[in-house]
Structures are given as C-alpha cells and as structure tokens.
Design brief:
about 150 residues; mainly beta; Deoxyuridine 5'-Triphosphate Nucleotidohydrolase, Chain A; four-stranded antiparallel sheet; about 5% helix; globular
Length: about 150
C-alpha cells in the first residue's frame, strides 16, 4: 500500500480525518466539502477540501471523479475529471457545476466527489515516417468501429 502525505489546513476537515474508502471494494476515496453553498442551475462553485496532498511517487497520479449519486442529479465536477500530478502540493479543490434545472445545496461534510489513484507510465516518442504496423482500423475515426 502506497503512503500519501496529507496536511490539513482547515479544522473542519481535520476533525473528519483522512479521506476514506466507503467499502472494502471501493476504488475511490470520498471527498467532502468544507463549505456550504447553494449551486444554482448552470452555476459552477468552488469547494475546498481543507487539506493538501503530496503523492510524491511519479508512477502515481490522483484523479478527481464524479460521484454517481450526484451525477444522476446533474451535479458534476466542472471539468468532469481532475488530474492531480505527483508533485502537486496545493490544497485540493473541487469545482462543481449544476447541469440540472434545480438548485442544489452542498453542506459542510457532504461527499461531493471521489479520489482515485492511478498508475502513470512515462513514455518516449520516436519520430517516424510511417508506423511500424498498420492496423485494420487505420485512420478510421468516430464511429468507424460501429456495428458490423
């Protein structure tokens, strides 16, 4: 198990402790708001998490992802997926956008997103005049692998 460093900068977050998995099989850690705010239809609001993380391991990154329970209500992270690089040390923020037609209240401590850690593979590019292998798909774009 990898160790991730955490610094709390808000007593509300510190009182809740470190982010936790909701179950043994959960892939994501619950991210909880440190603020109260009404999000009006079409509006985006910033929510601080109350802590900074340092991943430190360049073979890992963090991904802030939507919670399915909020997503079906039209409440999603503004950029849908947020990337946390291993060398980032600032406070975690989640920007939620209300895609619904209804106001949505977020209160301090509400689970508003989830954090998943993923492996990162660094690559090296090799400039070539043509690819070493031609695939069946080739340059086929959107819809090119549809029903046959």
């Amino acid at each position: 198990m990898k160790k991730i460093e955490i610094i709390f900068n808000d007593p509300r977050a510190e009182g809740r402790g470190v982010p936790e998995y909701g179950s043994v099989g959960a892939a994501g850690l619950d991210l909880r708001s440190c603020d109260n705010a009404m999000i009006y239809p079409g509006e985006t609001v910033q929510f601080p998490m109350g802590y900074a993380l340092y991943i430190g391991d360049h073979t890992l990154c963090g991904m802030i992802m939507p919670r399915s329970g909020l997503g079906v209500k039209g409440i999603l992270p503004a950029n849908v997926l947020g990337l946390i690089d291993s060398d980032y040390q600032g406070e975690l923020m989640v920007y939620l956008k209300n895609h619904s037609n209804n106001e949505f209240l977020v209160q301090n401590g509400d689970r508003i997103a989830q954090l998943v850690f993923m492996p990162v593979e660094h690559v090296m590019f090799s400039s070539v005049l043509e690819f070493s292998h031609i695939t069946e798909r080739g340059t086929g774009g959107f819809g090119s692998t549809g029903d046959k």
